[in-house]
Structures are given as C-alpha cells and as structure tokens.
Design a protein that fits this description.
This is GntR family transcriptional regulator. This protein folds into 2 domains: 2-65, Orthogonal Bundle (Arc Repressor Mutant, subunit A); 71-200, GntR ligand-binding domain-like (Four Helix Bundle (Hemerythrin (Met), subunit A)). The chain contains 10 helices and 2 strands, in the order H-H-H-E-E-H-H-H-H-H-H-H. It has helices spanning 2-15, 26-33, 37-49, 68-91, 100-112, 118-134, 139-159, 166-181, 184-196, 203-213; strands spanning 53-56, 60-63. The chain is globular.
C-alpha cells in the first residue's frame, strides 16, 4: 500500500494535480486515496529518499522544485547511464530478438500516447527506458536509473504540456532499429537527441504559467 500511495502521488504530479514546490498534505492525500494516513506518511518518506519530495522546517512536505538548471543536470546523469546501457546491451550475446521486450515497450508507449491520461504516458516512457537499461544486463546500472525514475516522471509530466509525444515514439523505434542492426553510433546519437530535447524546454516558465492558471482558494 505504501508503494501504491507513492505511485499515486507521482501520477498526481504527472497529471498536474501537484505542481513543483506544492505542499503535499498527508491527510488530504489519504482522504483522496481512501486509505489511512500511515501508508501515505511512509510513501512521502520513501519519495523524500528518492528526491521527489522535500521536507522543510515550517513548510512541511513539498513536491520537488523543477528548474531548468536542475533538469539539465538530471538529464546529463540520465544520458550517461543510458549511453552505457546502449553499449552494454549491444555487447550482450544473442541476435535481434534480445530487443523484443524493448520493442514491446515502445509499442506500449505508442499505445499510451493515444490515451488522455498523462500519467499513463509518463509511466510508459519510464517503462521503455527501464527496459533499455535492463537490456544491458547490468544490474547496478538499472538500479541507479530506477533511483532517478520518479524524478524523471515529474519532469516528463511537465514536458507533456510543452510538446507532443509523436517525436518520442519515433525516437524509440529508431533507437531499436539501430540496436537490432548493432549500430552503436546511430543508437547513441538517437538517444542523445531524444534526451537533449528537454534541454530546449523552459520548465520554469511553464511552472509559473500553470501556477497562474490555478483557481484561487
């Protein structure tokens, strides 16, 4: 139940229910989820350990802040991990079929883009990139990526308001095609372009605009 509560809070951020630096009120979240406050309290502590929630004296628990500089730093770390994942995935034994699970994840993302729920699209993006890291066969690499996944989910949720998902879906298939051909250069280049797309987005302006659009009271 703690994990479910944590997922619900992250999904709320992806949907824009919670904006960066919003206060996360334990009692209100528990009421909305129809559960007791104990698992929500533990979920908030879990998310704090993952950098999604920040506890500040006299301000309570708040969703992580999102700044352009912070996103750039997060994407640099992510890109380093996923570039290594590409290289190690290509070094794994086997043929093209070792990327079948990654292709199914790409199909799931393409399907999710047709849904109206941004949380589903964010979750599908997370699953695709987790599968890329899993294909590396490097368990510590996957664990490191997963430690960043929920921070990425918050950023991805915001990014959905600044661009559509079609280019991302195309990038997924281009990346898989390169992996299946064993073309490391193209695979890494595709990944770099895919990740650096977020560097062109003004998250600070978006958060400010969305906060202005929030109803008063």
């Amino acid at each position: 139940m703690v994990e479910q509560a944590a997922e619900a809070i992250v999904a709320g951020a992806a949907r824009g229910i919670f904006l960066p630096d919003d206060r996360l009120v334990e009692a209100e979240i528990a009421r909305d989820l129809g559960i007791s406050r104990v698992p929500v309290r533990e979920a908030l502590r879990l998310l704090e350990s993952q950098g999604i929630v920040v506890s500040t004296p006299y301000k309570g628990m708040r969703l992580m802040q999102v700044t352009n500089r912070g996103v750039a730093a997060l994407m640099r770390v992510r890109l380093t991990l996923e570039t290594l994942a590409v290289k190690e995935a290509l070094a794994q034994p086997g043929g093209r079929d070792r990327f079948d699970r990654l292709r199914r994840a790409a199909d799931a993302f393409a399907e999710a883009t047709r849904a109206h729920d941004p949380a589903l699209r964010v979750r599908a993006e997370e699953e695709f990139h987790a599968e890329l890291c899993r294909a590396s066969g490097n368990a510590p690499l996957l664990a490191l990526w997963q430690s960043l996944a929920r921070q990425l989910a918050v950023v991805w949720g915001l990014a959905l308001h600044l661009h559509d998902c079609a280019p991302e879906s195309e990038d997924h298939y281009t990346l898989i095609d390169a992996l299946e051909r064993g073309d490391e250069v193209e695979a890494v280049a595709t990944l770099v372009a895919h990740v650096e797309m977020h560097a062109k987005l003004d998250f600070e302006a978006l958060v400010a605009e969305r906060r202005r659009q929030q109803p008063l009271g």
